[in-house]
Design a protein that fits this description.
Layout: E1 16-23, E2 34-48, H1 57-79, H2 89-97, E3 100-104, H3 114-126, H4 139-157, H5 163-170, E4 174-176, E5 182-184, E6 196-201, H6 208-219, H7 222-244, H8 248-265, H9 275-284, E7 288-291, E8 299-304, H10 307-315, E9 321-323
Antiparallel strand pairs: 1-2, 2-3, 2-4, 4-5, 6-8, 6-9, 7-8
Amino acid sequence: MARKGSIEMKAKEGAFYAKILLFGEYSIMCDSMALTIPYSHFQGELSFIHEDKYTDQEFAEESSQSLRDFYNYLHNINERGEMFFEFDLNRLKLDIELGMYFESSIPQGFGIGSSGALVAAVYEKYAVNRILPDSSIPSEKLQQLKKIFSKMESFFHGVSSGMDPLNCYIRNPLLIKPDSSIKPVGIPREFSKSGGIFLINTGKPGKTGPLVNLFFEKCKEDEFFNRVKNEMIPFTNQSIEAILKDDFKEFFSKLRSLSGFLLSNLKPMIPEAYHSIWQHGLDTGTYYLKLCGSGGGGFLLGFTEDIKAARQMLKSRDVEIITVS
């Protein structure tokens, strides 16, 4: 259960928030811990084109076509006997024919779970005997949901861990351990009276597939893989452990090391225009940046002990921030 004063989300049934992977991008593929949170600034829900919604007609029609393609994927894996969960595919097909689409403010390709929210919404509405979301849900149920969501979201990414839809569906911070166990956790809303988490919009979407492939190719090099194992993973795990213990002196120490590692070793994942901005945070200690998802564009994730100072410093470099917590 999330403790008092921690990040947790409550939303009406049918509405699904974006998610932010605070820690674990790339390193989770090499068995690090990971920590993910819901982000209520963006959300989406299934709707119908004829309803009075803010989405323009063109977007709604494109979204409806995407849902049609998603239905075909689900239908095909069901026909092949690969769907190990029961769906009301007939009702899904009928609703798509009636003009259903995904009404969403979650930007696509920005690393905050646009497809995850859609998958969670479809599961909630059309799964038969679905597992109900709850912050105290047993670990075995979380694993079962993760497996289901992995199969569903693979339509969008080719391969999916299922973590994005799981976070969108549970609406609670989740800790993923190296043994793949998952549990809801409580994390503080604020690092201090003046600190916080923020996003930077790089202005263009990223492409997950090519960057993930690049990381795997780099991991075939012994020198790079050893750095991942001996530096990136410990910095990630130690950052997570510190934030969960409210030890913010330790947290910012390990976060600085992780941020420096990312800039030195994963530069292709960081838009070139932000290399100097990233380094400036490391040099001054006013803020520290890291990837938000696979990178290459989308959002960057920032942490600071003084949100006002970070905002002013970044604004002087023509960078606006979006506060997360």
